[in-house]
Amino acid sequence: MFNVLEKLKREKTIREMSLMSEIILKNATVITMNRRREIIQDGAVVIEGNKIIEVGKTKKIKSSHRADVEIDCSGKMVLPGLIDCHVHLAQALIRGCADDMALIPWLRERVLPLQGAYTPIEGELSARLCCLEMIKSGTTTFVESLLHWRYGFNQIARTVEKIGIRAVLSKSLMNIPGYADQKDAIPGGMIEDGETTIKQTIEMIKRWHGKANNRIHVWFGARTPGACTVDFYREISEKARKYRTGITIHLAEVKKDIEYLRREFGMTPMEFMQHCGIVGPNVIYAHGVWIPPEDFKILHKTGGTVCHCPASNLKLASGFAPIPEMLSSGVNVALGCDGGPSNNCYDMIREMKLAALIHKARLLDPEVLPAETVLEMATLNGAKATLWRNKIGSIERGKVADIIVVDLRRPHLVPVRNPVSNLVYAANGGDVDTVIIDGKIIMENRRVMSLDEEEVIHQAMEMGVAVDKRLGLNIRSKWPLK
Hints:
Layout: H1 4-19, E1 22-31, E2 39-48, E3 51-57, H2 58-64, E4 69-72, E5 76-80, E6 82-87, H3 103-116, H4 120-136, E7 139-147, H5 153-163, E8 166-173, H6 194-208, H7 211-214, E9 216-222, H8 230-242, E10 247-251, H9 255-265, H10 269-276, E11 283-287, H11 296-302, E12 305-308, H12 310-315, H13 323-328, E13 332-335, H14 348-363, H15 371-378, H16 380-385, E14 403-407, H17 419-426, E15 432-437, E16 440-444, E17 447-448, H18 453-470
Parallel strand pairs: 1-4, 1-5, 6-7, 7-8, 8-9, 9-10, 10-11, 11-12, 12-13
Antiparallel strand pairs: 1-2, 2-3, 5-14, 14-15, 15-16, 16-17
């Protein structure tokens, strides 16, 4: 474990970084993601405070700027931080707890009982572990979809504030303990009272929304149809409008979801969402695997976002979301890693490759979802989904400095003919070298400044097993351990 002196050095480094007036990233391949999608070779980015103030060729930038810190990015790629639009912070600590299981038993027998046994100590540790993994793999912004009150919302928000990552924290809401037609799908430890969850969410909005220099937003995290009545959904919608914030909800993840909506309400998923008022540019629909083509017009017209989670959908055999078809219909589609039991990692670079590949095979068309489109989903589309569209998602003058640096000098990343292709098809999160969020250097040379990595890993190893034991679970390898 790091000693006290090492921790003080880390804290001093973070304070010094926050006081710096200017940082220059130089000699880089800069993937701007601007309107023209320009890639600047031998490029440089100038950061002042938390804003990008100049982007251009290194020679020109150097002639007019003298920064407090210059980071040499020779042989490296500079691009906007990745945006994960569907994350379960509390599931990092239960990674691998329910492999090779169908969704309903996956939820009822493992995932929800384990999360229902959490104390705020485990909730906060899982959040730290998850944020550490996201930062080290290039995610600078995430949307947490269902924070149960038992995880310790306030402490998790304080942890996010301290770590320096950008986050949407969505408080979970429900008023029925079900999932679709499974009336008792949600175990006792996870059941919440509807009006209490509304009050808790509003309390957290008042306390945390816009805090940490606008790095933290608080949304409504509505549970799936079957866990909320129509009137309750309408109340959530009305409160989101009143407090000018967003809503995230799992929708049409598995075939049973649409069968339930057709049988109970005679509606498609988006018809039902429209009926309940859960529509608009401030809504993220996670998964959307079984959203039918007739719903694409509603999605496009109302401006909501579908968050594609390919690894989770594949592992749980949920199906293949019609992502190319949605994009062709003008629907905003972002990307998400989901959680530790359904994906097993929170690496958006891996997720980009998977998204790019599976639809080529599904449609027998190698031209669908090229690398460039997938990178747009992970940056610009995510920025639009999170309502930070004018702040993040591209490297342009006036945007907030959420930037990552990827080291291309690796055997699996050379030669570089098309840097975007190399990023999406050949890279992984371990290739991320430096992470800057809100103008502050959060990770440099793969060393995270705002977290004691060794301590987080040590605690996670111990506490993860402790939660299993609390429930009497013995989750082990299927092969004999000696």
